[in-house]
Amino acid sequence: MSATSVLRHSKWDGLLVALSVLHGAWLVAAPSVPLIALGLWWNANTVSHNFVHLPFFRSPRANTLYSAYLSLLLGFPQRLWRRRHLAHHAGDAARTQRWDAATWYEAALVLSLWTMIAVVSPRLFVFVYLPGYLAGLALCALQGHGEHANGTTSHYGRVYNWIFFNDGYHAEHHARPTEHWTRLTRTHPDARASRWPPVLRGCGVAPPLLNALERVVLRSPSLQRYVVRWHEAAMRPCLRDLPPIRRVTIIGGGLFPRTAIVLARLLPAARITIVDSDPRHLAIAQSFLGRDVVTIAGRYRVSHAIGADLLVVPLAFVGDRDQFYRAPPVPVVLVHDWAWRSSGDGVVVSWALLKRINIVRGRRRSDVRECDAADARISA
């Protein structure tokens, strides 16, 4: 594609610039958690990513101004992102680099914008911008993990590559990182490919990311209150019209035990047991819990659910999640799942976090002999 007197590489980069301006105008006109999250994720992997590799403009000053604009729009210095991303392509992503004056300038712009929003509208900053920003970063982390977890992987779906401007040609991009996005094609028939877009591909291997987000929550009492409020609002309707619940087993729940905190409030007479494979997580969680909550260090086995009236499965569960849908081992199972995986009754916890709770009803399994066979299919 031919360039113009203003654009260095291709006239199609003008479309990316126009869309980024539309993105900014939309945020100013109607800020919302989904718009901030989805906009950050989309822009970082399209406009910003392509600008990092091949700055759009002929004029260095225009590139500097546009870099500053993207820094404000996405909430992180583009100069820093560029150095880190190019180091990733060079196989040296862990290298620490000193900030130059331009990076400090962009960081100061971002901090100034955040301060202005927090002063002018604290509620908007805390309840709209910050959740949307963190959710957008989470989506970006899922995207990056999905693209590289098992080796650089491409996705050749037409719809995805139309919306994301050929970002799916990821193996090809790594082979030729200076190739313009309009010229990326499937040139390596033997390249690793997936039928799933990167962000969906990464959902199956999300526990490390989810644990990282949990540690962020641990550092902020305000986020802890916000997360508990979200989950209590979602779980309260899930518990309506259920038979009496006297025993609850929670898989996971270490680190910040929001599910146990909420269920202790909603089911004050129930005995709660948390099963977590990491004793360190349980030690952290114990500081938030009362003495009546029982903790078990070890991988979840079906035998842990015997006698329970309610079983809670976390989003970070590793193993055959569908097993709980096919053969629930207790009368009621609350399965934390991705928002698009609706199964029967349930409620969305947060569209920003792409998370829902599905209610699965089953019969109590009193035959312990079935546990060993089921344990072979489930690991956490």
Taken from the alpha-carbon principal axes, the silhouette is elongated
Number of DSSP helical runs: 16
The residue fraction in helices comes out at 40-55%
The Rg value, from CA coordinates, equals 24 Å
Strand percent estimate: 5-15%
| Count of domains | 2
Average pLDDT level: 86
Q: Which stretches are low in confidence, meaning pLDDT under 50 for 5 or more residues running?
A: 364-369
Q: What is the strand tally?
A: 7
Strand order of the largest sheet: 3-2-1-4-5-7-6
Name the helix and strand elements from N-terminus to C-terminus, one letter apiece.
HHHHHHHHHHHHEHEHEEHEEEH
Task: Give a quick account of the main beta sheet: strands, pairing sense, barrel closure.
Answer: 7 strands, mixed
Structural class given helices, strands, pairing? Answer: alpha/beta
- Through-space gap between termini: 50 Å
Short description:
The chain is α/β, with parallel strands linked by helices. Helices cover 49% and strands 10% of the residues. α1 (13-29) packs antiparallel against α2 (33-44) and α3 (47-53) crosses α5 (78-89).
